Amino acid sequence: MAAGQASSNDATPGKLMKVPDFGLGEITEPSLPGDVFQFNATGVHYARPASSFGATDTPYQGNFHVCKSQRDEDFRAALLIAQGSAEPDAYISVRHGSLQGPWGRLFHTENVVGTVSQSAGKVTGAAVQYGSGPGGKFRRFADGTQECWVTSPEVLTDTLVGSRYISAEGWEWDFPAEFISTPNVHATARRWSGAHAHSAMIGSGSFGINGCKLLLSTEFMGNSGFLHGYAIGRWY
After folding, report:
1. Residue 67: which of 85, 93, 86 has the closest Cα?
2. Are 107 and 127 in contact (CB under 8 A)?
3. Which helix (H) or strand (E) holds 186?
4. Which of 26, 60, 31 minimizes the C-alpha distance to 43?
5. Is the pLDDT of residue 97 over 90?
6. Could you tell me if 126 and 112 are in contact, meaning their C-beta atoms sit under 8 angstroms apart?
7. How far is CA 5 from CA 9, 87, 176, in A?
8. Distance (Å, rounded) from C-alpha 50 to C-alpha 10?
9. Would you say domain 128-234 falls under CATH 2.40.30.110?
10. Are 24 and 43 in contact (CB under 8 A)?
11. What DSSP state is assigned to residue 22?
12. Phi, psi of 36 (to 5 degrees)
């Protein structure tokens, strides 16, 4: 047809795109031998790549709707919408000359909060995770940052050390989520009984990636209060 493009790269003004050059109307799966960029047509397509995932392939082995555009053989861009489940998931990538960029996952309202995960430092899950347990609450971020916080049960002071009384046994804080290395911990105290001179300390023992000991300090024996702990560090 003289009015149609000679090929998917035919940029002659006034030419019509052929089916399936623009993808619409094509219900069969394009031949994508493990690389969506090997299929040259610009348009919207459905694809089931033949090989496993990789930088020049797809984010993972599965079915995708492919929205692809190219200026020529060396400059291409693609948006992949996964068809593996009913949950929306999409990825983007570009090829510039001989360089193939990584597949970047798009974050949206359905996946930005959830289980955070990573593989070799690359985000594979949600951006933010929130959780709680007997040891308090935690928030984990995709960049590796993690923070935990807690309020202890009521603690009483019972042992004189210098001019102050402390809770000698202390209160063992088991972090609600494990850190990869010892985090920075901050502790404060809230008065419950006794004079207004309550303070908190971090014990020298039992301090690691899983928890630490918090102690209460007051002016008089038998005074009580609550300990507030906050820890920040990295989960990977």
Report:
1. 93
2. yes
3. strand 184-193
4. 26
5. no
6. yes
7. 8, 37, 62
8. 28
9. no
10. yes
11. T
12. -65, -25
d(CA 78, CA 58): 10
DSSP at 204: S
pLDDT at 20: 55
Of the two residues 18 and 71, the one the predictor is more confident about is 71
Share of the chain above pLDDT 90, in %: 51
**DSSP single-letter state for residue 88:** -
**pLDDT on residue 183:** 97
Question: Which of these, 95, 93, 100, 102, lies nearest to 120 by C-alpha position?
Answer: 102
**What residue spans in the chain does CATH classification 2.60.40.3940 cover?**
128-234
- The residue type found at 7 is S
Cα(128)–Cα(115) distance, integer angstroms? 7
* Better-scored residue on pLDDT, 175 or 102: 175
Q: Which residue has the higher pLDDT, 42 or 30?
A: 42
The CA distance from 36 to 31, in Å, is: 9
Contacts for 66 with CB less than 8 Å, ≥ 6 apart: 23, 30, 36, 39, 44, 45, 46, 47, 78, 79, 80, 81
pLDDT greater than 80 at residue 215 = yes
Rounded Cα gap, residues 117 and 16, in angstroms: 46
Token pair of 225 as six digits? 């209060």
Separation of alpha carbons 84 and 63, rounded Å? 6
How many helical (H) and strand (E) elements, i.e. helices and strands, does the chain have? Answer: 0, 19
